[in-house]
Amino acid sequence: MDKNTVTGFILIALVFIGFSYFSQPSKEEIALQRERDSIAAINTKKEAENKVRQEKQQALEAQLSAQDTTTLFGRHKQGQAQDIILKNNLVKICLSTKGGNIKSAELLNYKDQTGKNVQLFNQESATLDYTLALKAENVNTKEYFFTAEDITDSTATLYITGTDSSTLRLCYKLIPGSYMTNLTIESTGLEKYLAPNQHYILVNWKEKARQQEKGYDFEARYSTLTYKTADDTTPKQLSETKEEEKTPEQNLDWIAFKNQFFSCVMIGHQNFNNTRLKSTPVEKGSGFLKAYEASTQTSFDPTGTQACQFQFYFGPNQFQLLQKTNRLSLTDKDLNLEHLVYLGWPLIRWINRFFTIYLFNWLTNFGISMGIVLLLITILLKILVYPTTRKSYLSSAKMRVLRPKIEEIQKKYPNKEDAMQMQQEIMGTYSKYGVSPMGGCLPILLQTPIWIAMFNFVPVAIELRGQHFLWSDDLSTYDSIITFQHELPFIGDHISLFCILFCASNLLYSWINMRMQKDSMAATGQNAQQMKMMQWMMMLMPIFFFFVFNNYSAGLNYYYWISLMFSAIIMWFLRWRTDDNKLLAQLEKNYEKNTNNPQKMKGLAARLEAMQQQQKAMQQRRQNK
Q1: Taking the complete model, does pTM exceed 0.85, yes or no?
Q2: 36 in any annotated domain
Q3: Distance in angstroms (rounded) separating the CA atoms of residues 175 and 182
Q4: pLDDT by residue (tens digit) across 545-585?
Q5: Using one digit for the tens of pLDDT, what is the confidence trace for 38-84?
Q6: Residue 546 domain boundaries
Q7: Which of 12, 95, 284, 596 could be a cystine partner for 84, CB 3.0 to 4.6 Å?
Q8: Is the dihedral of CA 596, 597, 601, 606 positive or negative?
Q9: Considering Cα of 206, then 212, then 215, then 218, what sign does the dihedral take?
Q10: Can you tell me the distance from the alpha carbon of 225 to that of 207, in angstroms, rounded to the nearest whole number?
């Protein structure tokens, strides 16, 4: 290759390199080209998605065209489910167009034991559907896909239309600021499809009550299927501990699937009739408490002149809240929903309703710890019953200082056949000294209803739920200082410290009472044996209480603990303040006054004195014969 040829190739290469360098795009041109390529890719993707969507729509239209048109609403048996949310600041209700019914109910201000919002109704464990018995077929709402309209945060209307434009419409409305949801079932053009004697709608409701709290046994004890008849103000309930099925003869106002602190309530404003109810306990450890079933029917107007009205309450069992919810009734029917909170027998319920609840709410409004609230309630109750407590103690103290005199009387009658005469003379002596052996019993009887009232109130007080105090994470369920991997007989899988403290204070209080009885009563012979047996029972009772109350709520055990401790302190204080010499001197004055003026003896003392005189007269006549 000669020199000219090489020079030519070099020049051609330089020209090519220069052309490539000066003809390449700028950074702005490169960015613009990349953007164009990206847009083109997106458009291609959208075209592919639209094609797939059109194919699905064509397939759906083909499927709908092949639907069953031989039944009234047959063309609605195919479709795609859609969720609709109704929500306020308290509860979130999820509706589904599949079945046109409630899919779930979630409380926004309450957590379950896992830290999630409390679920009161969930399609995984609950079903609710309505059935219309037509002449030619049964229309069950769960089989149809409804069309939704008029959707807001609190309202939704779901409907299906028949082959002749007849319509079945379900209108939902979540009442703002409440846990109540209204349901109106309306229809048009259905009257020709229903027989004259079939103007009713069947309701079938099943649900497994979910365990919301830590303690299965305690929660299950307060969970029950509850219902209210149209003629009664107080609801009835099925068994809490065993399987039970009932078919009430009366019409019902509402049916409630109730947990310890929450309830799902279905209210029928045209009344429920031909009802069958069933409650079945569910095995521990399954995550559920009871399996509830309710099948019933209510009147239905196929012409649409009068709508079929239901209401659903998904919320807490809080007494005053339920009282306010009664006012949301769609009719003038008195719902009496507050009875879902069981406050005890009539007398006990009266104490809780008109005293305990108001006192508890008043103290709660100060924003203090619930443990302190229970402490203050205990102090106030002790102050209220202090006069009766003092009277009971003084009665025992009087018998204590008179014990030597009673022992002298007992020595006069060593034979068993003289027991009646001995007892009459003892009672006569008590009457002359102005002492009533029964004086210590009445005050105790007056205090007992308060104890029982608190026993019924504390376990159902939802305000204690989730409240921390001392070592307890939740005063509404048990506290555990020791947890076992397996349940032990009669104990369970834990040991409650509050229960131990309650039993210890009960033991202390029983010991104080035994000392008082021993000091105040002269016991000989059979009476001594009876007293010894009673003392053994009083000492064994706290041990029995441990096995019973170990699964009870920490709040209840805590209340009983501090209540018994205050009782023991009060007894010690009264004993410290009592001067036996002064008390005996006062009794001697009573004896002298009653002996010198027997006409002034009244009541039990006078009757005992008369009986003693009659006994002496009878004995004298026997000796004369």
Answers
A1: no
A2: no
A3: 7
A4: 888 888 899 999 999 999 989 988 988 888 888 877 888 78
A5: 655 666 666 766 666 666 555 544 444 445 555 778 788 888 889 99
A6: 350-599
A7: 95
A8: positive
A9: negative
A10: 11
